[in-house]
Amino acid sequence: MFDALKERLDGVFGKLKGKGKLTEGDVQEALREVRRALLEADVNYKVVKGLVENIRRRAMERSVLDSITPGQQVVAVVYEELMDLMGSEPKPLTISPKPPTLMMMVGLQGGGKTTSTVKLAKRLSKGHKPLVVACDLRRPAAVDQLRVLAESAGVGFYGPEKGESDVLNVIDGALRYARDRLMDVILFDTAGRLTVDDEMMAELDAMKARIAPHEILLVVDAMTGQEAVSVSEAFHSRMDLTGVVLSKVDGDARGGAALAVLATTGVPIKFAGVGEGIDALEVFDAKRMAERIMG
Ligand code: GDP
């Protein structure tokens, strides 16, 4: 991720550092190139606009042009802005001191929710006894998919009884099932739809009220770029997300979704999906990423 962005910024910064005195025109030109590089990395234009304005303001405040090393000062300002945006340490998952820890996995259909649920459960099975719960009553295929993945990963599975029509019963059943087996982390794989629709959101609201989850994690496909941003905003405004799992990062060389989701929602990206395999999940370290972009 971010390789092209890094290369472009390296070019811009190389030119700046190479110059002695900078004119205002040099700085304008550099900022234009930073802007272009971010847009090419598929970062949402509103985010780019905000970022570039902040860089310009900081540069003015510090009168970088009058400094002895103006090029380096401009680079430092860009670095600081990126760090402000991405620089927080990885946010660990909340594990309730009083088990079970309850997690809702939400997101659009096809975004990688079911896969990520099992990936996360597998990761948590070092030290915990997780249970994944299929909550999509409209798509039996989704229930089967979770069951098969859970079996292959060796984590516990709970699904709806045949003919069950109320998802709240599934929740209650899962809580009992986990209690009887001393399972201490429960991940609810909620029903996804193709778009953010009211029916889905209403169901998620009802589930949230019943579960009182410690984590609500949105799984969003990094390859959808701009759409990842609007989907994150829609879910966050309704559900108060505690984190994002950015899936399919392996296919998103540009990395724009990560930057833009962070900038627009402020919700920490906790994990990144880096492949189809059940172990292909990494802790997302935005700070390290920003450091890498800036070399
Ligand atoms: P859901 O409808 O949101 O539950 O999505 P799925 O979990 O069924 O995932 C949809 C497709 O994306 C499947 O083919 C997954 O194998 C694939 N997928 C999920 N996460 C990743 C990832 O991190 N990288 C890649 N390359 N593929 C992924």
UniProtKB/TrEMBL annotation:
<dbReference type="GO" id="GO:0008312">
    <property type="term" value="F:7S RNA binding"/>
</dbReference>
<feature type="binding site">
    <location>
        <begin position="107"/>
        <end position="114"/>
    </location>
    <ligand>
        <name>GTP</name>
    </ligand>
</feature>
<feature type="domain" description="SRP54-type proteins GTP-binding">
    <location>
        <begin position="268"/>
        <end position="281"/>
    </location>
</feature>
<dbReference type="GO" id="GO:0003924">
    <property type="term" value="F:GTPase activity"/>
</dbReference>
<keyword id="KW-0342">GTP-binding</keyword>
<keyword id="KW-0694">RNA-binding</keyword>
<feature type="binding site">
    <location>
        <begin position="189"/>
        <end position="193"/>
    </location>
    <ligand>
        <name>GTP</name>
    </ligand>
</feature>
<keyword id="KW-0733">Signal recognition particle</keyword>
<keyword id="KW-0378">Hydrolase</keyword>
<comment type="subunit">
    <text>Part of the signal recognition particle protein translocation system, which is composed of SRP and FtsY.</text>
</comment>
<keyword id="KW-0547">Nucleotide-binding</keyword>
<dbReference type="GO" id="GO:0048500">
    <property type="term" value="C:signal recognition particle"/>
</dbReference>
<comment type="similarity">
    <text>Belongs to the GTP-binding SRP family. SRP54 subfamily.</text>
</comment>
<dbReference type="GO" id="GO:0005525">
    <property type="term" value="F:GTP binding"/>
</dbReference>
<feature type="binding site">
    <location>
        <begin position="247"/>
        <end position="250"/>
    </location>
    <ligand>
        <name>GTP</name>
    </ligand>
</feature>
<keyword id="KW-0963">Cytoplasm</keyword>
<protein>
    <recommendedName>
        <fullName>Signal recognition particle protein</fullName>
        <ecNumber>3.6.5.4</ecNumber>
    </recommendedName>
</protein>
<dbReference type="GO" id="GO:0006614">
    <property type="term" value="P:SRP-dependent cotranslational protein targeting to membrane"/>
</dbReference>
<keyword id="KW-0687">Ribonucleoprotein</keyword>
<comment type="function">
    <text>Involved in targeting and insertion of nascent membrane proteins into the cytoplasmic membrane. Binds to the hydrophobic signal sequence of the ribosome-nascent chain (RNC) as it emerges from the ribosomes. The SRP-RNC complex is then targeted to the cytoplasmic membrane where it interacts with the SRP receptor FtsY.</text>
</comment>
